[in-house]
Every structure is written in C-alpha cells, then in structure tokens.
C-alpha cells in the first residue's frame, strides 16, 4: 500500500540562497555561483548544490511526517538544477513498519520543466522516535 506525500514546491532557488548555502556548508566551489564557469563545462547556468537539494528533501519529509526520524537518506542525482529554478518534491511510501507507519519513502525532485533532477529514499526509524 503506497501513500502519496503532498508535493512541496521550493523556489525559485536564487543566487543569494545558493551563496548563503556555500558559506554555511563550506562548499565554495565557484561553479555553483558563476554562470560563466558553469558554461565552461557545458551547463547553461550555475547548478544548485546537491546537498542543498538534500536539505529540501529533508524538509519535505518533515512536513509530511513531523514526528518521524530520518535514519538514512540515499540520493541519486540525475540532472543539474540551475540557480533560479523552481523544484517540486514529491514522494510516496514504499515500505511500512509492522505498525503500519511509513518505513521508507521514495522521493523525487523535479524541475518546473518536469525533469527528474534527483531520486531519493528516506529510511524512517520508529525506534529512534520513541527514544529507544
């Protein structure tokens, strides 16, 4: 039994937000803030940090299941998200705990053009939630 998670729209993800993430994370690779550098490797625009997208995935899960504890989050990045883009995060339950609560969520990050930029799976821990 799969239960869908309400979609969460983020963005547009602006240059100022990407620059703030770069400072906070220590990932100051100029590729993420310079369209000129991005073009030198064949991208049309600077790409949003993958780990910033992971933070948005975490936020989407927390909004869907506020009491859940994310024990693991695996991701597969499939396409860059350009700075200035809007993304939609959606997901569904693909595995449940014995008590029927979600155990694994499959998540998708899509650009406004419908391109799947990232697929992920969040493993939820019931034991951690109860303080065990």
> Any low-confidence stretches, pLDDT <50, length ≥5?
128-132
Based on Cα principal axes, name the global outline. Answer: elongated
Query: Main beta sheet, described?
Result: 5 strands, antiparallel
Sheet/helix structural class: alpha+beta
Radius of gyration: 16 Å
Query: What percentage of the residues does DSSP assign to strands (E)?
Result: 25-35%
Mean pLDDT: 92
Order of helices and strands: EHHHEEEEH
Portion of residues in helices?
25-40%
The rounded distance between the terminal residues' Cα atoms is 27 Å
**Please, how many helices?**
4
Strands, total number: 5
Read across the widest sheet, the strand sequence of neighbours is 1-3-4-5-2
Overview of this protein structure:
This protein has 132 residues and is an alpha+beta fold. 27% of the residues lie in helices and 35% in strands. The chain has helices at residues 15-25, 35-40, 50-64, 126-129, and strands at 4-10, 69-77, 87-96, 102-111, 116-125. The longest helix is centred in the middle third of the chain and has 15 residues, at 50-64. It is elongated, with a radius of gyration of 16 Å. Mean pLDDT is 92; it is low at 128-132.
Outline:
The chain is 27% helix and 35% strand. By secondary structure, it is α+β, with helices and mostly antiparallel strands.
Summarize the helices and strands and which ones pair or pack:
Elements (H helix, E strand, L loop, with lengths): L3 E7 L4 H11 L9 H6 L9 H15 L4 E9 L9 E10 L5 E10 L4 E10 H4 L3
Antiparallel strand pairs: 1-3, 2-5, 3-4, 4-5
